[in-house]
C-alpha cells in the first residue's frame, strides 16, 4: 500500500529562516503524491521513496523491524545541512506491506519507483528489507527495457538463495533467473555468511565478488579497476547497499549484524565511485532495523550515505 509522505518527520534545529547557506534538509524538502504527478521532460533534483516492509525478512526468518527504517533514516537525514544545493528534494512517502504476497508489494514498489526515476536526476529508495532490490530492478528494467543492467551490491551475503517463495535472501537469484541481460557484482562479502552452494551458483552465473577483508581501508587499484570495468561494460547501473555489510561496531541496528564487516569509509569510497557515473540510475539502502539500533547510529549512518551521495 502506498502512503503519502509525512511532513512531521522533517524537523530539526533552525539556524536561519532566510539564509540558504544555513539551511538543513528539512528546510528544503518538498512533498508529492506519486499517484498524481505528471512526467517531466527533464530529470531534476533528488527523489526519495521508502519501502517500509519487513515481510521479506520475516519470511527469511530474520529479525523484523526494518519497516521502521525509512522513517528513522528520513528523520536523521532531515537534520543534516543542505550542502549539495540540488535543484529539488522531494519525499514521496513510503510503500507499506498490509496483506497479500511479498511479490505484490515489490511490484507496487517497482511501479512507483519507476516514476521516481523518470522524474529525478538521482533516486534513492530506502528500506526496509533488502528485498527492496527486486522492486528496484523492476523499476530499472521498466525504464530501460533493452539495456544491459549492471547490479552493484554492497553486502555480506550473495542473497541468491533458492527458497520456494520470495524473501529478503532470494532477490538476486530471482533477477538472474528472469533476465539474461544482467550482471552482478557483490562487494563486502563475508565468508561466514554464504554456503558452498551459493559459491557454486556464483560460479555458474558468473557473479563477481570481493570479500570484506579485501576492502580494509583504501580500495586497492585492483578493486577500483574491477568496479570501473564493471560500470564501463553496462549501459545502466543499479546500486544497492545492505547496511548489514558494515561492521556491527558501526551499524548495530540491522537485521543480521556482521562481525569483521566493512568500515563505513570504505562504503563511502565505493559509493562515490559508483555514483560519479552518469549510468547509475538509482540507489537503494536497506536493512536498517531501529528495534536494535544504538543511539540511532545505524539510521544516522544510512542518512549520511544519502547526504554524501547527493550530487
Give the name of the CATH superfamily. Ureohydrolase domain
Q: Tell me the helix content.
A: 25-40%
| CATH arch. level architecture | 3-Layer(aba) Sandwich
Q: What is the typical, i.e. mean, pLDDT?
A: 95
What oligomeric state best describes the polypeptide chains here?
single chain
> Can you summarize the main beta sheet?
10 strands, mixed
CATH fold-level label:
Arginase, Chain A
Number of helix segments?
Answer: 10
Name the shape in a single word.
Answer: globular
What is the highest CATH level, the class?
A: Alpha Beta
SSE order, one letter for each helix or strand: EHEEHHEHEHEHEHEHEHEH
Q: By helix and strand content, what is the structural category? A: alpha/beta
Low-confidence stretches: none
Q: Can you offer a commentary on this structure?
A:
With 311 residues, the protein is of the alpha/beta class. It has one domain (2-309): Ureohydrolase domain (Arginase, Chain A). 33% of the residues lie in helices and 19% in strands. It has ten helices and ten strands. The protein has helices spanning 25-28, 55-59, 69-78, 102-119, 132-143, 171-178, 196-205, 221-232, 264-275, 297-309; strands spanning 2-3, 29-31, 46-52, 89-96, 122-127, 149-154, 182-189, 208-211, 236-242, 280-286. Strands 1, 2, 3, 4, 5, 6, 7, 8, 9 and 10 form a ten-stranded mixed β-sheet that branches. Helix 3 packs across helix 10 (297-309), helix 4 crosses helix 5 (132-143) and helix 9 packs parallel to helix 10 (297-309). It starts with a strand and ends with a helix. The mean pLDDT is 95.
Amino acid at each position: 500500500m502506498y502512503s503519502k509522505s509525512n511532513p512531521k518527520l522533517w524537523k530539526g534545529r533552525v539556524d536561519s529562516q532566510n539564509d540558504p547557506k544555513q539551511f538543513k534538509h528539512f528546510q528544503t524538502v518538498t512533498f508529492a503524491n506519486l499517484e498524481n504527478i505528471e512526467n517531466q521532460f527533464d530529470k531534476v533534483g533528488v527523489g526519495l521513496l521508502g519501502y517500509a516492509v519487513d515481510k521479506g525478512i520475516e519470511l527469511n526468518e530474520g529479525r523484523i523491524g526494518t519497516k521502521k527504517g525509512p522513517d528513522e533514516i528520513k528523520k536523521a537525514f532531515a537534520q543534516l545541512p543542505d550542502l549539495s544545493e540540488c535543484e529539488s528534494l522531494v519525499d514521496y512517502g513510503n510503500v507499506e506491506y498490509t496483506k497479500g504476497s511479498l511479490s505484490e508489494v515489490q511490484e507496487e514498489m517497482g511501479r512507483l519507483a519507476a516514476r521516481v526515476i523518470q522524474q529525478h536526476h538521482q533516486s534513492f529508495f530506502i528500506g526496509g528489507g533488502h528485498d527492496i532490490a527486486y522492486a528496484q530492478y523492476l523499476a530499472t528494467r521498466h525504464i530501460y527495457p533493452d539495456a544491459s543492467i549492471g547490479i552493484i551490491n554492497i553486502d555480506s551475503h550473495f542473497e541468491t538463495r533458492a527458497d520456494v517463495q520470495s524473501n529478503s535472501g532470494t532477490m538476486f537469484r530471482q533477477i538472474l533467473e528472469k533476465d539474461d541481460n544482467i550482471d552482478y557484482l557483490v562487494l563486502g562479502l563475508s565468508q561466514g555468511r554464504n554456503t558452498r552452494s551459493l559459491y557454486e551458483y556464483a560460479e555458474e552465473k558468473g557473479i563477481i565478488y570481493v570479500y570484506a577483508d579485501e576492502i580494509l581501508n583504501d580500495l586497492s587499484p585492483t578493486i577500483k579497476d574491477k568496479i570501473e570495468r564493471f560500470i564501463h561494460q553496462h549501459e545502466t547501473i543499479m546500486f544497492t547497499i545492505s547496511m548489514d555489510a558494515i561492521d556491527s561496531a558501526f551499524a548495530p541496528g540491522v537485521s543480521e549484524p556482521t562481525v569483521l564487516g566493512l568500515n563505513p569509509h570504505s562504503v563511502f569510497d565505493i559509493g562515490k565511485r559508483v555514483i560519479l557515473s552518469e549510468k547509475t540510475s538509482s540507489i537503494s539502502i536497506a536493512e536498517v532495523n531501529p528495534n536494535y539500533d544504538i543511539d540511532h547510529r545505524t539510521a544516522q549512518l544510512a542518512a549520511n550515505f544519502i547526504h554524501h551521495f547527493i550530487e
